[in-house]
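Holo model, zinc ion. Inputs:
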Amino acid sequence: MTQTFDQPTAEFVSRMRRATLGLASHELAALVVSPGPDLRYLCGYDAIALERLTALILQADSAYLVVPELEVRAALASPVAELGIEVLTWGETDDPYRLVADLIPGGGKAGVEARMWAAKTFALGGAGLNVTTGERALAELRLRKSAYEINCLRKAGAAIDRVHEQVSGFLRIGRTERAIAADISAAIIATGHERVDFAIVASGPNGASPHHLASDRELVAGDLIVVDIGGTMPDGYCSDSTRTYCLGDPEPAARDAYEVLQVAQELAVRHVVPGISAEAIDAAARSVITAAGYGELFMHRTGHGIGLETHEEPYLVAGNATTLEPGMVFSVEPGIYLADQFGARIEDIVAVTETGWESFNLRPRNLIVVPT
Ligand code: ZN
Ligand code: ZN
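Output:
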């Protein structure tokens, strides 16, 4: 468990205020938030989700943190105390669900955060709370990043760029994906991340599976290698970037597909501007890939939001008409996947600015050829 104190308290004050003000428009009497990214976002308490109930109860005129007695010191060491949140403790023989229900009288709707354990949600309902989802109310808060958050994500992007800078040195004929992933994981920590979230090394035919992790496959000459990596910085913000490498000269088919992919990715990024829809960015990438005849081979959405979680709103996918606004941050990561042969993907984290976009990943986007 890590607490970060360099974050201005004003940031949390503003988040709590916006959450409180948003209750009415979501027809909620309260938000009930258990440990996870939403709790960390609102009040800076980075608690571990355990079986004992910890929950922030936010209402129009009050804020309580219900914590097990044995965790009260950790809670008070977080910014919670500075934010005027009243800490209520419960002992081993108390019923914390009854305690929460008593805090929210009158049968008003209690919006529960999406990642609360089902057992806890049911127990809150069993204690008489009118439980509903608080997912929308909380996701909207995190959708537009503050200047502080933009800076955190920019630093995370620079850190993962420094890992990609080293990847060519890890790629050699005969090395396994797993060994390469281990080197990458060490580099993710060495570049300032607190935690490795994933180190995808997908070589040759494995590259055709977008979420292949790493296997004992040994690299051979001519392999395309999809390297999709990310971690969490000590401030809680995440990195996520993909580059595709080639060990020696690529096969013509792979080179041709890659050229199309790079045009698609760069074009989609250049489309980012306030006022455009999330699905229009997906369409921009997809139209290039489809026109070149690879449409069937790009089977996933173009991107996902990123912040305290690697995947959060907004999602760049057909059907999502969400209007992009300054402060939204997401990946732009089209891919082309040819079963049993190869895959390729390029991924940058991009922020919507007042006038257009800023990419937090700046490594070259061409196919990176590693000499054998
Ligand atoms: Zn991603
Ligand atoms: Zn990724």
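Residues 9-142 form a domain with the Creatine Amidinohydrolase; Chain A, domain 1 fold (CATH 3.40.350.10). The longest helix spans residues 147-167.
Archived with the compound record.
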